[in-house]
Inverse folding.
C-alpha cells in the first residue's frame, strides 16, 4: 500500500444544470489493489464512473493520473491512458464469437496494403490463451458469446480490458445480475487481475461481495464520499449502515480516520 | 505445458468441425439449393440441367445476387435499403443519359455512374444515421422518391417518353462494353464445341456462346464480400455494428462510417446491375428494378441474414439468389403454372425465417 496511486481524484463535483450529482468525491486507486466503491441506488456511482472513465468532465476538482494532472476529453483518451471500464452491458455482442468480441475494434492484422487482413489465427489463439488464464476453457474460439453464462461474459470483458493494457479497471456492478456460483467466479477473476498489478475499482452495492475481494472501501452517499476504510478497519455491518444513510456515523468516525 | 496446450487444441478442433458447419448461417441456403435441385430433377424437363439450362437460370440469379449480396452486407450491418430497386431505375437513367444524351464513352460514364451511386448511397446513409430513424422508413420514402425522379428524369431526357433508347448504337464499339454485357470467353466455348465437349447447334456453333458476364461479376462480388466479412477488420466491424451499435462504438468501432459505407456499397451494387441491364437491353425505363429490393432482401434472408442484423453471410445470399433463379426459370421447364412462383417465393421466405431463428438459438444457446 506504499505505492503512489495510479489515479487520484480530489474533491470531484459534477453538476447537471441545477442537479448536483457529485458533491465532493475523493478517491484513489493503487496498482494491485481492489478498491471498492459502495453506494445505494442514486448515490452517484454511475456519474462517478463516467467522470473517471472520461465520459463526463468534472465541474470542480482534480484528477491526477500517475502523478500528473489529467483532463480526459473522451472515453478514448482514458482508454489510451490505461483506464478501462467494463460497463454493465459489457460491450459484448452475443451473436459474435468470443474471438471476434475480444478483438472488436482492435483487430490484429497481417499482410500489407490491399491484402491487410484480420489475423484470425493469432486472434483465436490469443483469445483462448487469455480465457484460459482466467480459468475458462473455451470449447472453440468461434463459440458465440451468447452461449456463455453471465459470469463468463463478465470474465471475457475483464480479460479483454487487461489484455489491452488496462492499468486501472473499473467494474460497474459486475456481480449484480449473477447467481452465487458465477459471482464467486467473477470475484476470483478480480482477485487474479489484482495480482497481475492492475488497480481494480469495484463498484457494487453488495457489501458481502465487496468484503470478499476488497482491500479498501469507500462509501458514496448522496453524491459525497464518506471516507475510505482499510479492510481490517471496518465490518460488513458498518459498511451497510454507511450505505443506508449513515445513522451510525458517529460511532464510525474513529475507524474512518476522521475524514467524515 | 506446451504439450498440454497442443492436446487441448486438437480436442477443440476435432470437436468443432462438424458442430461449426452446422452453425454456419449459409447452411439453410445450401440445403435449399439441394432441395430445389432435387425438386426440379424430378419434375422438370432434363433440358434444365444442361449447360444452356444452367446459364438460363444463373443469369437472372446473378443479377439478383449482386443486389442480394449488397443487401446482405447492409443487413448484417443492421440496416435495410428498400430503395434498392428504385435506385436501379434512377442510376440506370443517369447512366443512360451519360451515354446517350451527353455522348460520353463508357470509360467516363461508368466511373461517373458509380460516383453518382456513391452520392445516392451516402444520402440514404447520412439521413438514417443523423436522424436516428429506422432505415426501413427512410429508405421506404426513397423507394418512392427515386422511382418518381426516374420518371421525371426520363421524360426530361427523352422529351416525354418513359423509356430511353439508343444505348446500343452509342456503346457498340466501346472497348468496355464486353466487360459489362454479353458473354465472356466466346473463344473458349467455340473451342470446347469444336472438341465436342459441349452441345452445339447443327451448324456447329455452340448452344452456349459463353458465360454471361453478370455471372462472373456475381461470383467475383460474392468472393470479395465473403473475404471482407470473414477475414478483415472491416468485416468484424460490420458484424459488430449490426449486432449492437452501442457496444461496438464503445469498443472503438467506427459504427457511423461502417454503416454509411455499407449504404454506398449497396448503391454501388445497384449501379452495377443498372449498367449491366441497361447495356444488355439497350434501353432504360422507369420500371427497372421494380420490387427488386424485396427479392434481394428475401434472398439475403434465405441466405441466413437476420432481420435484426449482426448475423448472416454473403455466401448465403449467393445461394439464396441461385434458389430464386432456379425457381423462376425452372418452373417453365415443368408442367407447373408459372404463377406459382410468387407462392413459392413467400413460402421460401417464411421457411427461411423460421429456420434462421432456429439456427440463431443454436448459436447463442438461447432456449
Amino acid at each position: 500500500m506504499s505505492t503512489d496511486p495510479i489515479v487520484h481524484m480530489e474533491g470531484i463535483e459534477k453538476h447537471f444544470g441545477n442537479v448536483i450529482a457529485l458533491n465532493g468525491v475523493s478517491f484513489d486507486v493503487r496498482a494491485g489493489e481492489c478498491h471498492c466503491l459502495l453506494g445505494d441506488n442514486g448515490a452517484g456511482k454511475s456519474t462517478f464512473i463516467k467522470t473517471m472513465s472520461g465520459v463526463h468532465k468534472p465541474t470542480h476538482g482534480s484528477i491526477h493520473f500517475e502523478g500528473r494532472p489529467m483532463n480526459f476529453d473522451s472515453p478514448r483518451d482514458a482508454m489510451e491512458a490505461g483506464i478501462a471500464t467494463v460497463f454493465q452491458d459489457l460491450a459484448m455482442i452475443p451473436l459474435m464469437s468470443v474471438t471476434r468480441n475480444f478483438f472488436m475494434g482492435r483487430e490484429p492484422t497481417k499482410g500489407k496494403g490491399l491484402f491487410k487482413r484480420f489475423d484470425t489465427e493469432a486472434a483465436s489463439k490469443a483469445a483462448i490463451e487469455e480465457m484460459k488464464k482466467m480459468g475458462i476453457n473455451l470449447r472453440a474460439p468461434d463459440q458465440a458469446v451468447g452461449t456463455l453464462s453471465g459470469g463468463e461474459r463478465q470474465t471475457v470483458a475483464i480479460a479483454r480490458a487487461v489484455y489491452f493494457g488496462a492499468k486501472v479497471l473499473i467494474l460497474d456492478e459486475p456481480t449484480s445480475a449473477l447467481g452465487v456460483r458465477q459471482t464467486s467466479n467473477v470475484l476470483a477473476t478480480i482477485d487474479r487481475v489484482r495480482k497481475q498489478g492492475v488497480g481494480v475499482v469495484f463498484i457494487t452495492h453488495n457489501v458481502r461481495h465487496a468484503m470478499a475481494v476488497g482491500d479498501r472501501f469507500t462509501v458514496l452517499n448522496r453524491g459525497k464520499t464518506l471516507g475510505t476504510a482499510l479492510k481490517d478497519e471496518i465490518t460488513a455491518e458498518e459498511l451497510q449502515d454507511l450505505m443506508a444513510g449513515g445513522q451510525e456515523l458517529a460511532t464510525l468516525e474513529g475507524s474512518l480516520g476522521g475524514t467524515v | 505445458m506446451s504439450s498440454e496446450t497442443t492436446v487441448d487444441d486438437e480436442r477443440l478442433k476435432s470437436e468443432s468441425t462438424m458442430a461449426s458447419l452446422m452453425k454456419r448461417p449459409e447452411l439453410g441456403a445450401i440445403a435449399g439449393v439441394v432441395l430445389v435441385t432435387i425438386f426440379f430433377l424430378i419434375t422438370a424437363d432434363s433440358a434444365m440441367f444442361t449447360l444452356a439450362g444452367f446459364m438460363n437460370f444463373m443469369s437472372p440469379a446473378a443479377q439478383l445476387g449482386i443486389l442480394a449480396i449488397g443487401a446482405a452486407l447492409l443487413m448484417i450491418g443492421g440496416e435495410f435499403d428498400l430503395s434498392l430497386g428504385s435506385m436501379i431505375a434512377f442510376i440506370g437513367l443517369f447512366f443512360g443519359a451519360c451515354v446517350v444524351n451527353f455522348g460520353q464513352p463508357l470509360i467516363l460514364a461508368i466511373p461517373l455512374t458509380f460516383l453518382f451511386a456513391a452520392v445516392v448511397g451516402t444520402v440514404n446513409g447520412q439521413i438514417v444515421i443523423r436522424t436516428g430513424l429506422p432505415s426501413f422508413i427512410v429508405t421506404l420514402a426513397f423507394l418512392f422518391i427515386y422511382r418518381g425522379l426516374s420518371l421525371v428524369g426520363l421524360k426530361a431526357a427523352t422529351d416525354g417518353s418513359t423509356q430511353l433508347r439508343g444505348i446500343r448504337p452509342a456503346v457498340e464499339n466501346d472497348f468496355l462494353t464486353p466487360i459489362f454485357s454479353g458473354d465472356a470467353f466466346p473463344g473458349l466455348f467455340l473451342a470446347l464445341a469444336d472438341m465436342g465437349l459441349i452441345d452445339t447447334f447443327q451448324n456447329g456453333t455452340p448452344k452456349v456462346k459463353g458465360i454471361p458476364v453478370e455471372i462472373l461479376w456475381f461470383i467475383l462480388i460474392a468472393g470479395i464480400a465473403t473475404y471482407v466479412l470473414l477475414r478483415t477488420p472491416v468485416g468484424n466491424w460490420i458484424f459488430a455494428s449490426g449486432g449492437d451499435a452501442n457496444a461496438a462504438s464503445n469498443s472503438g468501432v467506427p459504427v457511423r462510417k461502417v454503416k454509411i459505407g455499407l449504404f454506398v456499397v449497396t448503391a454501388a451494387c445497384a449501379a452495377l446491375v443498372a449498367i449491366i441491364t441497361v447495356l444488355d437491353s439497350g434501353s432504360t425505363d422507369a420500371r427497372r428494378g421494380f420490387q427488386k429490393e424485396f427479392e434481394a432482401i428475401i434472398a439475403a434472408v434465405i441466405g441466413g441474414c437476420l432481420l435484426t442484423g449482426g448475423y448472416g453471410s454473403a455466401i448465403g445470399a449467393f445461394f439464396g439468389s441461385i434458389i430464386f433463379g432456379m425457381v423462376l426459370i425452372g418452373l417453365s421447364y415443368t408442367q407447373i403454372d408459372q404463377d406459382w412462383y410468387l407462392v413459392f417465393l413467400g413460402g421460401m421466405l417464411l421457411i427461411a425465417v423460421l429456420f434462421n431463428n432456429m439456427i440463431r438459438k443454436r448459436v447463442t444457446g438461447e432456449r
Observations:
- The domain at 30-40+51-359 of chain B is CATH 1.10.3470 (ABC transporter involved in vitamin B12 uptake, BtuC).
- Chain B has one domain: 30-40+51-359.
